[in-house]
Specification:
heterodimer, A: 278 residues, alpha/beta, Rossmann fold, 6-stranded mixed β-sheet, 4-stranded antiparallel β-sheet, globular, B: 277 residues, mainly alpha, 2 domains, two-stranded antiparallel sheet, 12 helices, 1% strand
């Protein structure tokens, strides 16, 4: 199965082991992606497929380019001065690096959740209606309906339905992060990029957000960066292991989560998932 | 013991500063309130200000301030937004502009007065007028206002900018609906600083809006500002002290009122931005 005729699905690891968790249809195809800041390469030659409806976890030590990789997928990296991206990222027949694409539309289709919850300093309702209005939804009833649906999707509706006009900043950290996820979902994206969405949260809030991420599987394609290996194992269908080689980040192994954790092909992966390296 | 000394020192410093301010205020109020009346506020001055009131002067002051704010608010906000949001980080142009603004903010007001006289009054032919005075004050306020707004915008958490962009929102939406309301406290602080400086200004106005204490009839008329009036009464007019104190009291009250008004208007604006569905 391919999206682009000139490219084929790219996988690493033994695909026959373990239960098939979702169909590996590529949603994003990344080919020979390299990222450099001011001429210093931080990530080199990464090729990998992100499968539709699956949760892909990016694991590896700090500083190996996982976050840079993630923010290149919605063209957010291009905003950083001196950052340069080479290679190809195919999404819906377009190469989002080289083709002239509408980045505003792209970011509507590929949402992003950040490490630190970043609800806007507005009311809870307005956090959700502002992006909707920006994308042309003006009808009051439709807006109200979408707000309710998004908040229900993230399990926040019962907690906040009586104070939709209160400040979003008054919510707890876990609630703020779920509001941010709702804010991304309200635009009905196809892909969600998550950059360590639980690392700034306490264990209970982290557990709530994690179960929410699990429920996104199937409806959305999720790419999640996490330092919590146990979490990656619990939520992800696929795992990509990044590592630093000569101070440049690179992809070491990609495959079904269970394979990467139970039967890694690369000794580096084995050492990392067993906690002996990194 | 050192701990106690430290506490004592801090308390001492705080009391000294507030004390000095309170003394100043009390002096103005005590000496000014006797001469103050409704007639004083609305009447025209007589005998070089010894008698009569400050009606036309109050009107001129507000007009000059109005011109200054009308010009400096949009220009200052626009420049601050460009510097904080759109200029390239560490870019040459941005650095040069910041440096120029810092230098300009430190220039004595008399120099602005001379510049305003040469440029607005003579070169552009506005003469001694409310327009010249207001524009000169605008030049004086703008550098401080821009730097204050820029500092406010730059202090905003980057998470909001990235969040807005990641949602496919345009930068203008992010600035207008998220960043400006978040920077509102700094913008108000800059605005109040500007209002305070402009209302209290004498040196920059003597050469630009002039001395004439009649009721102004248009923007091109000369008008005497309150601060100029106080300066004149206390320095050049014998027997003008009582009127000077009363005018000073009016000036202080005016600045307080303007600050309260600016705060209230911004509060309303921020609330509307935040809560309108």
């Amino acid at each position: 199965m391919t999206i682009n005729n000139s490219t084929t699905a790219y996988t690493l690891g033994n695909m026959t082991l373990g239960q098939a968790c979702c169909t590996p249809v590529p949603h994003l195809q990344i080919k020979k992606l390299s990222i450099a800041y001011a001429g210093n390469t931080v990530l080199d030659d990464v090729s990998l497929d992100i499968y539709k409806g699956c949760i892909t976890a990016l694991i590896g030590p700090s500083g190996c380019g996982k976050t840079s990789f993630l923010s290149s997928l919605n063209c957010l990296l291009a905003l950083i001065p001196q950052a340069s991206v080479t290679g190809h990222i195919y999404f819906d027949r377009d190469d989002i690096i080289h083709d002239a694409i509408d980045t505003m539309r792209l970011r509507r289709r590929i949402g992003m959740i950040f490490q630190k919850p970043n609800p806007f300093p507005l009311s809870i309702r307005r956090n959700l209606t502002l992006p909707l209005r920006e994308h042309g939804v003006r009808n009051r009833y439709l807006l109200a309906e979408k707000v309710e649906q998004a908040l229900k999707d993230v399990g926040l509706w019962d907690e906040v339905k009586d104070r939709l006009d209160g400040s979003a900043l008054a919510l707890s950290g876990g609630q703020q992060q779920r509001l941010c996820i709702a804010r991304a979902l309200v635009l009905e994206p196809e892909i969600l990029l998550m950059d360590e969405p639980c690392s700034a949260l306490d264990p209970i809030a982290s557990g709530v957000v994690e179960s929410l991420i699990k429920r996104l599987q199937g409806r959305y394609t999720v790419v999640i960066v996490t330092h919590n290996l146990a979490q990656a194992r619990r939520v992800a269908n696929y795992a990509a292991f990044f590592w630093m080689k000569e101070r440049v980040g690179t992809l070491i192994e990609f495959g079904r989560c269970v394979n990467v954790f139970e039967h890694p092909r690369n000794p580096l992966t084995l050492a990392y998932v067993r906690g002996q390296a990194g | 013991m050192p701990e106690r000394m430290f506490t004592l020192l801090i308390w001492g410093a705080a009391l000294l500063v507030t004390g000095a301010l309170l003394w100043l205020l009390a002096d103005t109020v005590l000496q000014g309130v006797a001469h103050l009346s409704w007639a004083f506020i609305v009447d025209a001055p007589e005998h070089a200000g010894r008698d009569g009131g400050i009606g036309p002067i109050l009107v001129s002051t507000l007009c000059i301030l109005g011109v200054a704010l009308l010009v400096s608010l949009p220009l200052g906000l626009g420049a601050a937004i460009w510097l904080a949001e759109f200029s390239r980080q560490g870019g040459f142009l941005g650095q040069i502009i910041r440096l120029s603004l810092d230098v300009l903010a430190g220039v004595p007001s008399i120099v602005y007065g001379l510049f305003g006289n040469a440029f607005f009054s003579l070169f552009l032919g506005f003469g001694f007028s409310i327009l010249s005075g207001g524009l000169t004050l605008a030049c004086m306020i703008i550098p401080v206002f821009i730097r204050s707004c820029e500092a406010g915008l730059s202090a905003i958490d980057h998470g909001w900018r990235h969040g807005a962009l990641a949602l496919g929102m345009s930068r203008s939406t992010a600035v207008w609906y998220i960043l400006l309301p978040a920077a509102a406290p700094a913008i108000i602080a800059g605005l109040m600083l500007g209002i305070g400086r402009a209302t209290a200004e004498t040196a920059a106005l003597i050469f630009t809006s002039g001395y004439v204490d009649r009721m102004p009839e248009s923007w091109m008329d000369s008008g005497r500002a309150l601060a100029v009036h106080i300066y004149d009464l206390s320095m050049n007019v014998t027997g003008g002290n009582a009127a000077a104190y009363a005018s000073a009291l009016v000036l202080v009250t005016l600045i307080v009122l303007l600050n309260v008004l600016a705060q209230a208007m911004t509060d309303r604006w921020v609330k509307r931005r935040i809560f309108s569905a």
